[in-house]
Structure formats: structure tokens, C-alpha cells
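Hi there, hope your week has been kind to you so far. No rush at all, and the record is pasted right below.
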Amino acid sequence: MPEIPLVPAHWRFPAHPTSVRQARQAVAATLPRALHPHLGDDLGLLTSELVTNAIRHGARSEDENLIELVLWPADGHYWLAVSDPGTGNPVLTHPPADSEHGRGLLLVDTLATTWTVRPRPVRGTSVIAGFSFRRGG
């Protein structure tokens, strides 16, 4: 009989700066304690970065300003998807050294094992990042 997977953790936050901290805390509270030394800092940093980007670039009008997060384990990875209602397509850039913005996807590319940007089935965009972990802690 196949192993039954865990139900993914799912949250919705308003497109407001206070949601960045709330999202980071929700992800940290959900990650098994044994994985905190391996994934906690990287997953927290990328949660903050991706939620910030979703708020800045993906939220459009008052009735569409929800940022969604999904966190789930599968295939030796923890997967984080951050989605927003925007239609833009995030692109990896290499900003000049003196630039104060534009490094979010560079962080994702450096810290995640793999990542992608996908359109959502109805409306919006998701950035999905996978973080490998060692089974058993």
C-alpha cells in the first residue's frame, strides 16, 4: 500500500507588509523541528523575499490582494509555492552592485535546489521552490 502523503499547509495573507512576518512565522511553525537546522533559515529567508515580491508586484486591486502560500513535503524536498493574482512573469536578473532591489530571484536561485515560475490555472502567478532535505532529520 502506498504511503499517504501529508496534507499541504496552506495560508492566505493580505497584500500588506505585516504579512511578510506572519508568513515567515507560519512556515517556521509548520516545518518539522528536526529540519530547522537544515532548512529553517533558507526557507524563512525565501518566504520573506517571495511574499514581499508578491505584495509589491503581484497584488493589483483591493478585491484581488491575497497572497497564497503552500508548503508540502514530497520526493525528498520541501516545496514552497508563493502565489499572487498578478499577471507578470518574474524574471531572474543580475542588478548592478549598487542597486537596492532586484535580487529576490537570485536568492531563490542560490538557495533552492530547484525552482520555477508557473501561471495559475485561473489567474495569477506562482513561484515554486524546492529545498532538499535528509530523511530522518
The chain has a mean pLDDT of 86. The domain at 9-132 is CATH 3.30.565.10 (Heat Shock Protein 90). The chain has one domain: 9-132. The CA atoms of residues 11 and 106 lie 25 Å apart.
